[in-house]
Amino acid sequence: GERHHFGRLYVAWAEFSGSGRSPIDLAYSDDDGANWTGPIRVSDAGHQFDQDATPRVGPDGTVYVTFINGPNEKSTKNNVAMIAKSTDGGDTWSKSYVAAQIPSPATSLPNSLYRGGTDVTSTVDQQSGNVVVAFGDQSSGALNVWVTHTTSSGDLSSFSEAEQVKPSDQT
After folding, report:
1. How far apart are CA 65 and CA 56, in angstroms?
2. How many CA atoms lie within 13 A of 63 on its CB side?
3. Measured distance CA(61)–CA(148) in Å, rounded
4. Which of 118, 117, 84, 119 is nearest to 99 (CA)?
5. Whole-angstrom Cα distance, residue 151 to residue 6?
6. Quick one: pLDDT at residue 153?
7. What pLDDT was estimated at residue 40?
8. Cα(35)–Cα(28) distance, rounded to whole angstroms?
9. CA–CA dist 145, 58 (Å, integer)
10. In this predicted structure, what is the pLDDT of residue 22?
């Protein structure tokens, strides 16, 4: 479609500034990485304690970025998997939407509040355009992978109920 920017490279990251906030930024390149446009802010002002940004492109050229968000920089409880989209190749971004609750993210670094064991990632079904979001949660006592997906292509306001990929009581 006309929204496609074929060959465009995308990279997204959390901006850890030391000031307690870590919004998600993105940059893109149209010349194999020789030059970059950005950083461009992805996460909205209401969601600033973020990390694990993953950019993906849909069949119509829409760019999606998923990430994990916490209520503050010290919380490892009640986090959420977030998603935002751009329909103009990454120049502007929608508000950030909650794809799923992550009640108990894992921390894999000793004496750290970094959510190192709970990654949020995604893929886009290139036929249907639905976004599938995967994340880790240890509410059962063990870290398990959960997935959810958009219920309508391009609509980030409605996701399916999250399901465990393979329930386990072992990490």
Report:
1. 6
2. 25
3. 21
4. 84
5. 27
6. 92
7. 95
8. 8
9. 23
10. 81
21-29, long-range: CB within 8 Å, 24+ apart, which pairs?
21/48, 21/49, 21/73, 22/48, 22/49, 22/50, 22/51, 22/73, 23/47, 23/48, 23/50, 24/50, 24/53, 24/65, 24/67, 24/84, 25/53, 26/53, 26/55, 26/63, 26/65, 26/90, 28/89, 28/90
Tokens of 25: 């930024």
Integer angstrom CA distances of residue 70 from 13, 30, 115, 118, 154? 16, 33, 9, 12, 24
Can you give the pLDDT at residue 138?
A: 83
For residues 116 and 128, the answer to whether their CB atoms sit within 8 Å is no
Please list the rounded mean pLDDT of every run of 10 residues in the chain (171 residues).
79 80 91 96 82 92 92 73 95 95 74 63 95 89 89 94 78 51
CA 95, 97, 98 angle in degrees (round to 5)?
A: 155
CA–CA distances in Å: residue 62 to residues 35, 37, 69: 22, 17, 22
Which amino acid belongs to residue 64?
Y
Q: Enter the tokens of residue 69.
A: 């968000």
Q: Is 76 exposed, middle or buried (0-12, 13-18, 19+ CB in 10 A)?
A: middle
CA nearest to 94, candidates 150, 137, 36, 161: 150
